[in-house]
Amino acid sequence: MTPDEFVVTPYEVRGRIDYIRLREMFGTQALTNELLARLHSLTGGELSPLLTRGVYFSHRDLGWVLDQFAKNSPFFLYSGRGPSGPLHTSHLVPFELCQWLQQRLGVRMFIQITDDEKFWARPGLSREQTAYWGLENLYDLLALGFDPKRTHVFFDSRSISALYPLAVRVARKVPYSTVKAVFGFKPSTNIGLVFYTALQTVPCFWPSWAEGRSVPCLIPCGIDQDPHFRVTRDLAESLGYPKPALLHSQMIPGLLGDAAMSTTGDREENALFLNDSPKTVEKKVRQAFTGGRTTVEEQRRLGATPEICSVWALWRTRFAKSETEFQEVTRDCRSGALLCGDCKSKVLERVHAFYREHAAAREKVKDWAESTIITAAPKPL
Ligand code: TRP
Question: Is 201 in the pocket of ligand 1 (CB under 6 A)?
Answer without folding.
Answer: no
